[in-house]
Design goal:
There is one protein chain. The relative contact order is 0.15. The chain folds into two domains: 140 residues, Rossmann fold; 128 residues, 3-Layer(aba) Sandwich (Rossmann fold), CATH 3.40.50. It has eight helices and twelve strands. The protein is an alpha/beta fold. A six-stranded parallel sheet has the order 2-1-3-4-5-11, sandwiched between helices. A six-stranded mixed sheet has the order 7-6-8-9-10-12, sandwiched between helices. The N and C termini lie far apart (80 Å). Helices cover 37% and strands 18% of the residues.
Length: 294
């Protein structure tokens, strides 16, 4: 084979086996840490199973954009599709996946119609909020992700429910856009109020912005104000102080996506609709402490 330069013909193999050994991935945004970690995990799991991926980013999280991406991939040589979703799109009936094409969705409320894999957004936010309450903080402020984001909505709802269950006041929600700058801008306003002693940011990058604002205002974290993030990005323990945050197991999400997609490819009737939840847990570091004594 080496002497004559023979190379296997993947197209011919696909015609014989009915398999292209390729998985399409639709990614609604490449700007968020969670989506990129999920994409990396899906690609790693796919490669381990002997599959390559065809990535199709979607510029705008609208029904038309996602439907167009699904249809384009359905026309290409893919065995199935993973949709890494952040917006509330597939939880409605506006977008449908072509019949017979295996699909797994990440980060969506479409489990009644499709196979969905997600981390436990609700429990993670509850753990973050309850941790601050248990330290003795009477009011926990929240910097949420974009209103269009499914995961941000779940985290905000859980934060609100946890405060209500504890009989604590529920401050107004501050909406960010996942980046550190939006956390900083909200943090500047919060730092100006000495009554603010606890903040739960919906991701680590916004938490980093909050801590910068606190430091610039001369307020020590956590002696003057405690900060909790969400994601447990690899740099979280290098923040100053190291960030208390909610850990998401993106590797497990990627493995489950590929596992469930391949099960559908092997036997379309074997995997039905439903949501698989990957647990989250709180990683306690040095950015939280009891409120300052008055």
């Amino acid at each position: 084979m080496d002497e004559v330069g023979y190379r296997p013909n993947s197209a011919a193999r696909a015609l014989k086996s009915g398999r292209f050994r390729t998985i399409g991935v639709i990614l609604v945004t490449m700007s968020s840490f969670g989506n990129m970690r999920t994409l990396d995990a899906v690609a790693t799991a796919a490669a381990a199973a002997g599959y390559s991926i065809t990535l199709l980013p979607v510029a705008l999280p609208t029904q038309g954009e996602v439907a167009g991406a699904v249809n384009r991939l359905a026309e290409q040589a893919v065995d199935g599709i993973v949709i890494i979703m952040e917006a509330h799109i597939l939880d409605r009936n506006d977008v449908t996946v072509p019949t017979g094409l295996p699909v797994v969705i990440v980060d969506s409320d479409a489990g009644a119609r499709y196979t969905v894999v997600d981390t436990d957004q609700t429990e993670g936010a509850r753990l973050a909020t309850q941790h601050l309450l248990d330290l003795g903080h009477q009011r926990v402020w929240h910097i949420a992700g974009p209103e269009s984001s499914y995961s941000a909505g779940r985290r905000t709802a859980s934060w609100r429910q946890t405060l209500a269950a504890a009989g604590a006041a529920v401050p107004p929600v501050l909406v960010g856009d996942w980046n550190a700058q939006s956390g900083y801008e909200h943090g500047v306003r919060l730092a100006a109020d000495p009554a603010v002693t606890a903040i739960f940011a919906s991701n680590d990058q916004m938490a980093l912005g909050v801590m910068r604002a606190m430091h610039e205002a001369g307020r020590s974290v956590p002696a003057s104000c405690s900060v909790v993030g969400f994601d447990d990005m690899s740099e979280a323990d290098a923040f100053w102080p190291p960030l208390t945050t909610v850990h998401q197991d993106f590797g497990q999400v990627g493995r489950l996506c590929i596992e469930k997609l391949l099960a559908q490819i092997d036997s379309p009737a074997a995997v039905g609709a439903g949501t698989t939840i990957v647990p989250t847990h709180l990683v306690m570091r040095a950015s939280t402490a009891p409120p300052p004594r008055t």
